[in-house]
Amino acid sequence: MVTAQQEPDTMDVTAAVETLREALTAAGIVLPSLGADAASPSLHLINLGRVRADVALRLADAIRRGCS
Fold first, then answer.
1. What is the pLDDT of residues 7-48, one digit of tens each?
2. Do residues 30 and 12 lie in contact, with contact meaning Cβ atoms separated by under 8 Å?
3. 67 SS3 class
4. Do residues 22 and 4 touch, judged by C-beta distance below 8 A?
5. Burial class (CB in 10 A: 0-12, 13-18, 19+), 52
6. Nearest 10 degrees: CA dihedral of 15, 28, 5, 12?
7. What's the pTM?
8. Spatial distance between the Cα atoms of 21 and 66, rounded to a whole number of angstroms
9. C-alpha to C-alpha distance for 50 and 39, rounded to whole angstroms
């Protein structure tokens, strides 16, 4: 599992993607295009992809609930 405290230079992008996917799945959210950004491996970027408006609203709601 990847934690938010890891240094960006040591980040395992694949593990981060899977950790995020598991958390989103637990919240009932699927981001079909979620994956590592192959165009920038040294930056450790994750592509969240495009989502429908209803999925974006569910994601926003999950984040709000987690922040309260």
1. 656 679 999 999 999 999 999 999 999 999 999 888 999 999
2. no
3. helix
4. no
5. exposed
6. 10
7. 0.77
8. 16
9. 17
Q: Look up residue 24 and give its two tokens.
A: 């989103």
Q: What angle do CA 24, 57, 68 make, to 5 degrees?
A: 70
Complete DSSP assignment for 21-54: HHHHHHTT---TT-EE-TT-GGGT-EE-----HH
pLDDT score of 11: 74
Over its C-alpha atoms, the chain yields an Rg (Å, rounded) of 13
Token pair listed for 50: 């495009």
Q: Which amino acid is at 5?
A: Q
Amino acid at 39: A
